[in-house]
Each structure stands twice: as C-alpha cells, then as structure tokens.
Design brief:
16% strand, 277 residues
C-alpha cells in the first residue's frame, strides 16, 4: 500500500541514459518518490519469442534504483509476432497478444529479472480506446481476463509487487472506437464478479484537466459550456475531479479500501483546438 499522497512523474529513461540520470535527479530534488516508465513488450522481445534485448530496460531500472526512486512499470504493446496486424505506429495503434500465454510468458521472464526492483506494474494503457486494443471495439471483459492473468503471474513471482489497472481515458465517446471510462469501469467490475481481489491492488486512472481549473467539480463542469465543450452532463468528464466519479463506482462496488493512482494528468495549452485550450 502507498502512503497518500505519494508523488512522481513519467519519464523517458529508455533511449537517452544521459538525460535519464539528470531527470531522475530533478524528480528526487523536487520531492518525488516515483517514476513511471513505459516498457513496451515489442522493444524487449520484438524479434521473435524468446529473443530478448534487455539493454535499455536494464538501464532504466538500474538508474531508478541508483537514485532510490520507486518505479511504476507500464507494460503493454505486443510485438507483431504475438499480435499480428495490431501494431500500427502511424495510427498510434497497439494491441494485446492473440494468445494470452505469450503475454504471461513474457511477464514471467520480465518480473523474474526485476523482482524486488520494480515496486508496481501497470497492466496495459487506456484499454477503453480501440487504438490500444488492436483496432477492435474496447472490451472490458477481455481486459479483465488479461488483468487477472497478469495479476496471478506477477504475484506468483513477486508477491510484494503492486498491480495497477490500466489508466482509462476520460471520454464522452461511446462507439466502436472508444468507451467512456465510467462505463468501462462498470462493465469491468461486472466481468470481475464485482470483486477486484485477484485482479488489481490499485485502480489506475487518467485525470486530464482540459481547460477547467483543478478545483472545479464535475457537477459544475456539467453546467458550464465553457468547460464541458457544449456537451452538458456528458462533459463532466472534462476536469481533473472526474476522478471522484470513478471513485464513486469503486465505493459502490465495495472497493473503498483500495487506493487510486492518478497515472496521467495535466492541463492543455493547445491553441489549435480552442474548445480545450
């Protein structure tokens, strides 16, 4: 369990070891105790099953350990051999393995290598978006199954590691391309039998503030077209405090004892899309 709050930042420790040491030093000096790092499966076992390249992964973990900063490892992005046709950088598209056992085999090697050196694992990212799910419609039941298989394997190797569910994108879109985070959460809990034990230790969320000030409540955003993009009640997701809506789902499911980790958040300075600037 984490102290509340604990602070951290996402970093890109992978390709630039010379800046990784600098960035982690800046985080530590700012009082941050966590770093979030993406470990793309395709970058580690991309050539073929069993062909591993640990150079950059080792560098990232070693640097964080040396700085005394806890690591949250985001694991996702199956290689082409495991998820044929899913990986499309031009569309920013990735997807899960066709055969979950290939994913579990990768986790076995990864977690065994870094046992005791990585404090938490985030399983996938934004599975409520089609582009993160091989271009297929988001599927909370499939994601729950992936989460359970991941939890079971990681805990069997490193019982002290924390398992964080993949952060969900707040969106009003509900179609073949995206599902609202609230609806995805509700369906995910249904697929889990309304019990998160054996699936995750910490619920991961994304909390972009868009253009609403951080203190504005979802109820107030829903009433203000300036903040809700003209979408009324649906637009309550366009604020940092939409995490409170997600928390209400957890509480309703009897999961109030579990913590939430805000994995991504921020406020846009985009001048090209004035609705969110």
């Amino acid at each position: 369990k984490m102290n509340s709050p604990e602070y951290g930042a996402q970093a890109f420790l992978w390709w630039r070891p010379e800046t990784a040491d600098r960035d982690l030093g800046l985080m530590r000096d700012a009082g941050m105790t966590w770093v979030k790092q993406i470990f793309a499966w395709q970058d580690i076992e991309g050539a073929s099953k069993g062909a591993f390249n640990w150079v950059n992964a080792d560098q990232a973990v070693n640097t964080a350990n040396a700085k005394g900063i806890d690591m949250l490892a985001r694991l996702d992005n199956a290689p082409n051999w495991a998820a044929p046709g899913c990986n499309n950088p031009a569309k920013k598209q990735m997807g899960p393995a066709k055969n979950t056992q290939d994913w579990v085999d990768f986790l076995t090697v990864f977690v065994t290598r870094y046992k005791g050196r990585i404090r938490a694992y985030e399983i996938w990212n934004e599975p409520n978006l089609s582009r993160e799910w091989c271009g297929r419609p988001p599927n909370p039941t499939e994601y729950a199954a992936l989460l359970k298989a991941s939890y079971t394997k990681i805990k069997s190797i490193d019982p002290n590691a924390m398992i964080v569910s993949g952060g969900l994108t707040p969106t009003t879109q509900n179609d073949s391309q995206a599902m609202s985070d609230s609806q995805f959460m509700e369906r995910m809990y249904t697929a889990m039998g309304n019990k998160s034990d054996g699936y995750f230790d910490v619920l991961g969320v994304h909390a972009p503030g868009f253009k609403a000030p951080p203190e504005v409540s979802p109820d107030d955003i829903a009433k203000n077209a300036l903040y809700n993009n003209g979408e009324g009640a649906l637009g309550r997701v366009y604020g940092f405090r939409h995490t409170e809506d997600i928390r209400k789902i957890m509480v309703a499911k009897g999961d109030s004892a579990k913590q939430i980790a805000i994995l991504e958040f921020g406020w846009t300075s985009d001048t090209l899309h004035p609705a969110f600037a």
